UniProtKB/TrEMBL annotation:
Origin: domain of life: Bacteria
Binding locations of a divalent metal cation: 245-246, 269
Record GO biological process: malate metabolic process
Catalytically driven reaction(s): (S)-malate + NAD(+) = pyruvate + CO2 + NADH; oxaloacetate + H(+) = pyruvate + CO2
Keyword DNA-binding: no
Cofactor: Mg(2+); Mn(2+)
InterPro entries noted in UniProt: Aminoacid_DH-like_N_sf (IPR046346), Malic_enzyme_CS (IPR015884), Malic_N_dom (IPR012301), Malic_N_dom_sf (IPR037062), Malic_NAD-bd (IPR012302), Malic_OxRdtase (IPR001891), NAD(P)-bd_dom_sf (IPR036291)
Binding-site residues, (S)-malate: 156, 417, 461
Protein name: malate dehydrogenase (oxaloacetate-decarboxylating)
Cellular component GO terms held in the UniProt record: cytosol
Residue ranges constituting the Malic enzyme NAD-binding domain according to the UniProt record: 270-530
Gene3D superfamilies noted in UniProt: Malic enzyme, N-terminal domain, NAD(P)-binding Rossmann-like Domain
Length: 564
C-alpha cells in the first residue's frame, strides 16, 4: 500500500499548527514539501519527509518499549488523539496484538482508571446539567457528518459495574473497532458519554474523578434526559446509527424497546451479543454434527446478554423446526438465586418468558428454594453452558464435571468480560472435560496445550457483528435494524467458521479476517434490509460498490488549500 491514496485531494482550510493539532487531518512528518509550503508548516516539523510505513515503524518501536498493557493503551490512545490515520495504520498492521490493548480486556482497566489516565478530549461528554442545551453541545462535536454513535451511561461497564464517566473508554474502544474492522471512517464515528452521576462510592470519593460528583439521577429524570438526547441526535444527524452500550439491566431493554422501531439503533449487549453467540453456537453444533434445536441450553446470568441470547436461540430453534413451547422448555436461566421458574418472585418482564415451568422440574432433587447451577447440570443434562454473569469462577470443577457426565462433547462458553471476570478459564474447562469440549470466551485467551494437542480459543465477542452491521446500514442507508438483519449476521458468521467448515482450526475466523467478514456481513444484512423495505433498492453490484466506497482505509490523502 502506498502512503498516499489515489483518491482525489481533500480541500481544507486548516493550516499551520491547527492542521497538526487536528487528528483527522494530521500527517505529522509525512506532510510533503509542497504541503509544508502550502499549509504554513515550515519549521514546525523535523525536516525529513517520512512515509506512513516509516512512521508506523517508529510508533511500533515506541509501543514495544512499554511493558504494561495499560501503558500500551495510553500510548495508542495518544496516537489516536494526535493522528488518526497513523493510529489505524499501526492497528491494521498489528491487529491481533493490539485489539486486546484497545479493546477488552485492557479497555476495562482504562475505564476503571479513566480519570487517572485522562490526557485529552475525545467525543462528547454530555452531562445531565447540559440537558437544556443539547443542540449546542452536539454542534460542538469535532465530527460534522456523524454516521455512528456509540453511547453509554457507564452504569454496567463489561463485568465491572458502575464506572461513571469511565464508560467513555468503552464507547471509544467500540468505535475504534468500527473503523479498524468495519471500515467506518473515523470522521463519521462519535463516542458519547451520558453523565447522569454515578453510584460508585469509590469514584465519588476519588479527588481525580472527572464526572459529575453526584448519585445517578432518578428514573424519571433519566428517561427525560435520554429522550432529549435522542431527539437532539435526530435533529442534528437524522440518519446516524445509535449503538447503546453497557447500560445497566433496568435501562438496557426498556431503552431498546422504546426506540428500536423509531430510530436506527440497537443494543450491542442484547442484540449484538445474541447475534455473535447464536452464530458461534451454530458453528459449534455443526462442527459436532448436531442441531441447536436438539440441545438443552443453560445460561448463568439472566440479564441483558443472557436473555437477549436466549430469545435468539429460541428463534433459531423454531427456524430449525421445533415449536416455540418446546424450544422454551429447553432453556434454563440461572441468576443469583438459582434457576428462574414461574414461581421465582420479582422477575423482570423480559425474564418471565424465559422462566422454566415448575411443573417440568417436579421430579428434580435439590435442596435450596430454587435449583442451583450444579442441580441443573445433574438434572437437566444440558449440552450447552453459557456464562454471562460478570462473576468470576461460577463454572466450578464440580459443575463442569457434572455437565461432562451427561454430554460427551459439551459446548461451554464463559463469555463474561474482561478476562478476570470469566466464569472459568479455558485451561480449567479443558482440564475438567479431559479436552472433550468446544469452548469460546468473551475476552481473548491464549491457545491451551492439553495432552499433546493445542486448543485455539475462539473469542465470542460482539465485535464480530457490530462493525459489519454498521457498514451494511451505512452502505444501504437502512432506516432501522431488524431482528432479521441480526439473524442474517449470525448466519454469515457461522458460515465462516473454519472448524465447522474444515473440521479443524478455530471455531471463529481470526480477527485478521474481520474486515473481509464485516464486508460479507454488511452485504448480507443490507440485502435483508432491502427485502424488508428498510433500505435503498440496490442491485448486488451496486451494493458491493457502496460497501467498498464506504470502506475507509488508513492512507494519507493529498491536501489542497481552500481559503477560510
Ligand atoms: N462476549 C460478549 O460479547 C459479551 C457481550 C455482552 C455482555 N458480556 C458480558 O456478560 C456479562 C453480563 O452482561 P449483561 O449485560 O447481561 O449484564 P446484566 O447486569 O444485565 O446481567 C448480569 C446478570 O448476572 C446475574 N448474576 C450476578 N451474580 C450471579 C451469580 N452468582 N449467579 C448467577 N447470576 C448472577 C445478575 O443478577 C444479572 O441478572 C458481563 O460480564 C459482560 O461483560 C459479554
Ligand atoms: O465490550 C465487550 O468486549 C463485549 C460486550 O459488549 C461487553 O459488554 O462485555
Ligand atoms: Mg458491552
Amino acid at each position: 500500500m502506498s502512503s498516499s491514496s489515489k483518491k482525489s485531494p481533500l480541500y481544507t482550510a486548516y493550516s499551520g499548527s491547527a492542521l497538526l493539532e487536528t487528528p483527522l487531518l494530521n500527517k505529522g512528518s509525512a506532510f510533503t514539501a509542497d504541503e509544508r509550503l502550502a499549509f504554513n508548516l515550515a519549521g514546525l516539523l523535523p525536516p525529513r519527509y517520512e512515509t506512513i510505513e516509516e512512521q508506523v515503524s517508529r510508533a511500533y518501536m515506541q509501543y514495544k518499549s512499554f511493558d504494561t498493557a495499560i501503558n500500551k493503551h495510553i500510548y495508542l490512545r495518544a496516537i489516536q488523539d494526535n493522528n488518526e490515520t497513523l493510529f489505524y495504520r499501526l492497528l491494521q498492521q498489528h491487529l491481533e496484538e493490539m485489539i486486546p490493548i484497545i479493546y477488552t480486556p485492557t479497555v476495562g482497566d482504562a475505564c476503571e482508571q479513566f480519570s487517572d489516565i485522562y490526557r485529552s478530549a475525545r467525543g462528547l461528554f454530555i452531562s445531565y446539567q447540559d440537558r437544556h442545551q443539547l443542540d449546542d453541545v452536539l454542534r460542538n462535536a469535532t465530527k460534522r457528518k456523524v454516521k455512528v454513535i456509540v453511547v453509554t451511561d457507564g452504569e454496567r461497564v463489561l463485568g465491572l459495574g458502575d464506572q461513571g464517566i469511565g464508560g467513555m473508554g468503552i464507547s471509544i474502544g467500540k468505535l475504534s473497532l468500527y473503523t479498524a474492522c468495519g471500515g467506518i471512517s473515523p470522521a463519521y464515528a462519535l463516542p458519547v458519554m451520558l453523565d447522569v452521576g454515578t453510584n460508585n462510592e469509590k469514584l465519588l470519593n476519588d479527588p481525580m474523578y472527572m464526572g459529575l460528583r453526584q448519585k445517578r439521577v432518578n428514573q424519571a429524570e433519566y428517561d427525560e434526559f435520554v429522550d432529549l438526547f435522542i431527539q437532539a441526535v435526530k435533529r442534528r444527524w437524522p440518519d446516524a446509527i445509535i449503538q447503546f452500550e453497557d447500560f445497566a439491566q433496568p435501562n438496557a431493554m426498556p431503552l431498546l424497546q422504546r426506540y428500536r422501531d423509531k430510530i436506527c439503533c440497537f443494543n450491542d449487549d442484547i442484540q449484538g451479543t445474541a447475534a455473535v453467540t447464536v452464530g458461534t453456537l451454530l458453528a459449534a453444533c455443526r462442527s459436532k454434527n448436531a442441531k441447536l434445536s436438539e440441545q438443552k441450553v443453560v445460561f448463568v446470568g439472566a440479564g441483558s446478554a443472557g436473555c437477549g441470547i436466549a430469545e435468539q436461540v429460541i428463534s433459531q430453534m423454531v427456524a430449525e423446526g421445533i415449536s416455540e413451547a418446546q424450544a422454551r422448555s429447553q432453556i434454563y436461566m440461572i441468576d443469583r438465586f438459582g434457576l428462574l421458574t414461574d414461581t421465582t418472585p420479582g422477575l423482570r418482564d423480559f425474564q418471565q418468558a424465559l422462566a422454566q415451568s415448575s411443573a417440568a422440574i417436579t421430579d428434580w432433587s435439590y435442596s435450596s428454594e430454587f435449583p442451583s447451577l450444579l442441580d441443573v447440570m445433574n438434572c437437566a443434562q444440558p449440552g450447552i453452558l453459557i456464562g454471562v454473569s460478570g462473576q468470576a469462577g461460577l463454572f466450578t470443577e464440580p459443575v463442569v464435571r457434572a455437565m461432562k457426565k451427561g454430554c460427551a462433547m459439551p459446548i461451554i462458553f464463559p463469555l463474561s468480560n474482561p478476562s478476570r471476570q470469566v466464569e472459568a478459564t479455558p485451561e480449567q474447562v479443558i482440564n475438567w472435560t479431559e479436552g472433550d469440549v468446544i469452548i469460546a470466551t468473551g475476552s481473548p485467551f491464549a491457545p491451551v496445550a492439553y495432552n499433546g494437542r493445542l486448543y485455539p480459543i475462539a473469542q465470542c465477542n460482539n465485535s464480530y457483528i457490530f462493525p459489519g452491521i454498521g457498514l451494511g446500514v451505512i452502505a444501504s442507508k437502512a432506516r432501522l435494524i431488524s431482528d432479521e438483519m441480526l439473524r442474517e449476521a449470525s448466519k454469515t458468521l457461522a458460515a465462516a467458521s473454519p472448524k465447522a467448515n474444515n473440521g479443524e482450526g478455530g471455531l471463529l475466523p481470526a480477527f485478521t479476517e474481520l474486515s473481509a467478514l464485516s464486508k460479507q456481513i454488511a452485504f448480507n444484512v443490507a440485502k435483508v434490509a432491502m427485502q424488508q423495505g428498510l433500505a435503498l433498492e440496490l442491485d448486488d453490484a451496486m451494493l458491493q460498490q457502496k460497501i467498498e466506497d464506504n470502506f475507509w482505509l488508513p492512507q494519507y490523502r493529498h491536501y489542497k488549500r481552500v481559503s477560510a
